[in-house]
Specification:
The protein is α/β, with parallel strands linked by helices and 270 residues long. It has one domain: Survival protein SurE-like phosphatase/nucleotidase (Stationary-phase Survival Protein Sure Homolog, Chain: A, 3-Layer(aba) Sandwich), CATH 3.40.1210.10. The chain has 7 helices and 11 strands. A hairpin with a 2-residue loop joins strand 3 and strand 4. Helix 2 runs parallel beside helix 3. The chain is globular. It catalyses: a ribonucleoside 5'-phosphate + H2O = a ribonucleoside + phosphate.
Length: 270
């Protein structure tokens, strides 16, 4: 397949540093049209609005809605000839199977797959435990993510990757501004999403229930509960993780339900 026109979106908002870094890198050689939320719409999953306001922006269009709104509006109306969707670059990693349905970044790529348009979801791991989101970032911090995404946009279509996968979930380590350039960019590893799940719920005295994800306190080589070959382990090891994924969720035809359906038909009312 040939890629000429790219629909760029994200869930951090159209003015996010990570989106601009990707736009600058991709627009050098591709026709990039941005449709991104007017503000931060992180962790909204595949939420879809009834209608959205769309206004012109220097990068394309600002959409008063979700990342999925942006993809549907783009591929079905505004940029129907897009060859590829790129979502990101997200401030914060989208690692593990349990994050895939929650992430607005990844959900944009999933939505593109239903239009039969391949996609790349790009995110960057920001170290710092549970307070990672407070860190102010500059474009240079996204260098690993931008380099990897640009490489995949250039090379993956001709390599036949999208003949076997609907989208790529990319997670890159943060590039420090003062890092030693002689060490080169972070290496790339093909991965599968981690299946580790550890979300916790705590009932408070005020009647509320608080949620916490303890993985952010275990993001070190010694403590991360994942083996080599998983997305989270790759990022902890300083690698760019690329997981080739497909939609929709696979159906299992031999789960014993046919016999149950037959039994249900003759069982009568209880």
């Amino acid at each position: 397949m040939s890629v000429e026109r790219i629909l760029l979106t994200n869930d951090d908002g159209i003015d996010a540093v990570g989106l601009r870094a990707l736009y600058d890198a991709l627009s050098a050689d591709y026709d990039v049209v941005t449709l991104a939320p007017t503000e931060d719409r992180s962790s909204v999953g595949r939420a879809l609005s009834d209608d959205v306001a769309v206004t012109e922006h220097e990068l394309g269009y600002a959409v008063d809605g979700t990342p999925v709104d942006c993809v549907v509006a783009g591929l079905d109306e505004i940029v129907p000839d897009a060859d590829l969707v790129v979502a990101g670059c997200n401030k914060g990693a989208n690692l593990g199977a349990y994050t895939l349905g929650r992430s607005g970044t990844v959900s944009a790529a999933v939505e593109a797959a239903f239009f039969d348009v391949p996609a790349v979801a790009a995110s960057m791991y920001v170290p710092g435990g549970s307070d990672w989101w407070k860190r102010d970032l500059v474009a240079a911090n996204f260098d690993n993510a931008v380099r990897a995404t640009r490489f995949l946009v250039d090379e993956a279509p001709d390599a036949g990757v999208f003949d076997r996968a609907d989208y790529l979930n990319v997670n890159a380590p943060l590039a420090e501004e003062d890092s030693d350039a002689s060490t080169g960019p972070a290496p790339m590893r093909a991965t599968t999403p981690s299946t580790w799940y550890g979300l916790e719920a705590t009932r408070n005295g005020d009647g509320n229930v608080s949620f916490a994800d303890p993985i952010w306190g275990r993001m070190t080589p010694a403590d991360v509960p994942d083996s080599v070959g998983t997305d989270r382990r790759a990022v902890v090891d300083g690698e760019v993780s690329v997981s080739p994924l497909s939609v929709p969720h696979a159906a299992e035809p031999d789960a014993g339900l046919e016999a149950l359906a037959d039994a249900y038909a003759v069982a009568g009312r209880p």
